[in-house]
Amino acid sequence: MRNLIIILGDQLNADSAALDDFDPHHDAICMAEVAQESLKVWSSKPRTTLFLSAMRHYREALKARGWPVFYRELSKTGGVWLCPDVASASSAENFTAALTEVTALAKPARWIMVEPGEWSVRHEICDAAAASGIPLELREDRHFLCSHAQFAAHAEGRKQLRMEFFYREMRQRHAVLMEKGKPAGGTWNFDSENRKSFGKGGPPLHMPPRRFNPDAITQQVILMVNERFCDHPGDLKGFDWPVTAEEAEQALADFIKYRLNEFGDWQDAMWTNEPWLFHSRLSAAMNLKLLNPRQVIASAENEWKQGRAPLAGVEGFIRQILGWREYVRGIYWHQMPNYVELNALGADQPLPPFYWSGETDMECLRDALKQTLQFGYAHHIQRLMVTGLYALMFGARPREVHQWYLAVYVDAVEWVELPNTLGMSQHADGGLMASKPYIATGKYIQRMSNYCSGCPYDPAESTGPAACPFTTLYWDFLLQHEPAMRMNQRMSMQVRNLTRLDENKRAAIRAQAAQLRSQHAAAPSSSKQKP
Question: How many domains does the chain have?
């Protein structure tokens, strides 16, 4: 064999650079399911199922082209190599061991792969190549619109990195929402127009996202996951995610037709028992590379050009992909490997155990957590301003928060999840990712949702039996970090509000916050076993 083409579970694009010049007479493809990927964090059943089902469908598409594939498939208790001519038992516990096994079977002269998206995986494979003495060729991942070199050039010489300036560069470079060299509509950012709440009437009538019922391959994965990872969080009864490129394109068309038009208005709003609202559910398909972000951006931009969707909403949607998605990838590779260890606020509390069960009397957290555990999904405001906000003000250890987000969401791959969690949500990088910590009282949640109407707590109260824990912890956070927050210009108004609190009120807030932490504290949770 000439080349063994290694394809990871989040590299499922048919036009992958790894497949350039593939010759089925002299090359073969290697894909491997390994249990360690579901165990290094306590990966939820929906997340594991999505990855494995998408991988198996991709394998079938490769085989349909007549291409030889060495595929390691997990079973209830072990694994087996499904090779071009014969099956072979596998005892590999991790990806390195799997590569050792397949190399012994295939005897290739060289390994080829697209650069891995995760720092540790890249180094694991490079180390395995060095140990085996086999040359490894890493190819640039052209799925993304900004290369590592381009991001490094953007970052060079800057005292601060800010997404807004990066986003403007990307708009100009790729000629997206531009008119005669200027931003369409005369401004780069319509964020202020995309923050509406539903009000008492609730969300308007809307079409739910298209469902994709599990086929035979997905059903086999569901059966295996329910048996092998039976103690992992999550529920597979309603699993309906797209697992092929064709299904991902259908999901895109469904969003563009039925929800993009109103996405901008309601993208920050929340409502009880409404997990999807006007959101696209496309991030998982893009992160597995079943869907090309260029296609998503072009489809949304075309709706505006055709007068079928407002500019403000289309810009807000495109900013999440062309801006945030590319920016967090740049931050990740620019800052790793030390980024994951950052804890600028000195947060030292264990993540409350109800994050793994959803069992809490706080209505907003219960709804967001139950939804997350059931579907493997929550939209960006639920993640930033409900689950993330509480963890931040509670003082949960950033690495534990990161491990939870990586474990429970179907779209979670480390390059995108880590900067969003550690930097944007938890401010553990001290402002590298975002210019201020995103903190708010329960009043924000009351304004953007109906959660507070069914909750025993009052978002206006910071102390006493009816006090909203978000409000208590908000004021306690400011009291704890007042010196540092005074140095942050964007926090000045919030810090000034501390002057409204006399010493008795400050003491009462601190005492109630301490009581909350004591009630919610637990032994430090392992990412490999149930807390």
Answer: 3
C-beta of residue 512 within 8 angstroms of C-beta of residue 461: no
Token pair listed for 511: 């005492």
The angle at the Cα of 334, spanning 326 to 176, to the nearest 5 degrees, equals: 20
- Does 152 share its domain with 283? yes
pLDDT value for 527: 41
Looking only at Cα atoms, what is the longest distance across the chain?
Answer: 79
- Report helix, strand or coil for 160: coil
Query: Which pLDDT belongs to residue 522?
Result: 58
Q: Where are the alpha helices (DSSP H) in 213-306?
A: 216-228, 245-258, 260-266, 283-287, 293-305
Q: Tokens 């392992």 belong to which residue?
A: 526
- Nearest of 285, 247, 294, 255 to residue 410 by alpha carbon: 285
Task: Determine contact, residues 18/6, Cβ cutoff 8 Å.
Answer: yes
In this structure, is residue 109 part of a structural domain?
Answer: yes
Query: Looking at the whole model, is its pTM more than 0.85?
Result: yes
Burial of residue 108 (number of CB atoms within 10 Å: 0-12, 13-18, 19+): buried
Strands 79-82 and 69-74: antiparallel
Residue 81: give its domain's CATH number: 3.40.50.620
Q: Which of 252, 191, 1 is nearest to 103 (CA)?
A: 1
Contacts of 502 (CB under 8 A, 6+ apart): none
Residue with tokens 């209830």: 76
CATH of the domain at 225: 1.25.40.80
Q: Position of tokens 């893009």?
A: 286
pLDDT in the model for residue 531: 45
- Give the end of a domain, one of 139, 167, 202: 139
Alpha carbons 522 and 497: distance in angstroms, whole number: 32
Residues 35 and 152 in one domain: no
Give 10-residue mean pLDDT values along the chain (531 residues). 96 97 96 93 97 98 96 92 87 91 94 97 95 95 97 93 95 96 94 88 93 98 97 95 98 98 95 96 98 98 97 96 97 96 97 95 97 96 97 98 98 97 96 93 97 95 97 97 90 91 96 94 49 45
| Closest among 114, 173, 126, 120 to 146, alpha carbons compared | 173
Are residues 327 and 379 located together in one domain of the fold? no
**Is residue 526 a part of any domain in this protein?**
no
Residue 270 exposed, middle or buried by CB count within 10 Å (0-12, 13-18, 19+):
buried
Both 132 and 28 in a single domain?
yes
Domain that residue 158 falls in: 148-341
Number of other CB atoms surrounding residue 19 within 10 Å: 19
E strand or H helix at 313: helix 311-318
